[in-house]
Specification:
The protein contains five helices and twelve strands. With 149 residues, the protein is of the alpha+beta class. The protein has one domain: OB fold (Dihydrolipoamide Acetyltransferase, E2P). A seven-stranded antiparallel β-sheet has the order 7-10-11-5-4-3-12. It starts with a strand and ends in a 10-residue tail after the last helix.
Length: 149
């Protein structure tokens, strides 16, 4: 698993570095979407995470979730189009789940992509994400994720 400046980026996921989202293909054809540990560390304290509701379409570039911190409100924009099958509504009550376990219980939505093969081709596999993330951190003058005991 790549670790860039203390930020964990699991190998088995796919990444959209610029939008700071990860993608996990599931056996049932769905793809889970979540925020990376880098995005969450940059955001600092989460006030609210509002994933887009299930049973609706989402288009590439639309918000999979709205994220609110003490400093800003931003959209987590998805890389591909599809149909949202599940939404992690537990984040509405407990947004810190996203920071506590970004690659597990902190997922945002599960989407059935229109064309996963095309979408995957535009994403970076976890094994190739370390250098692009290191470059992004340099550009944004981000010191890194705090190590948790």
């Amino acid at each position: 698993m790549p670790i860039v400046k203390g930020c964990h980026l699991p190998d088995e996921l796919f990444y959209d570095v610029e939008n700071q989202l990860w993608y996990r293909p599931l056996e049932d054809g769905l793809v889970e979407v979540g925020m990376t540990s880098v995005a969450l560390a940059m955001a600092a304290a989460l006030v609210a995470v509002t994933p887009k509701r299930a049973n609706r379409r989402i288009e590439a570039g639309e918000a999979a979730a709205v994220v609110e911190t003490g400093k800003l409100v931003s959209a987590a924009r998805i890389a591909f189009s599809g149909f949202i099958e599940r939404s992690n509504e537990a984040l509405l009550e407990e947004p810190c789940r996203a920071s506590r376990d970004p690659y597990g219980e902190g997922w945002l939505i599960a989407v059935r992509p229109d064309d996963w093969n095309a979408a995957r081709a535009a994403l970076l596999p976890g094994t190739a994400v370390a250098k692009p993330y290191a470059a992004k951190m340099r550009r944004e003058k981000f010191a890194g994720c705090a190590e948790k005991d």
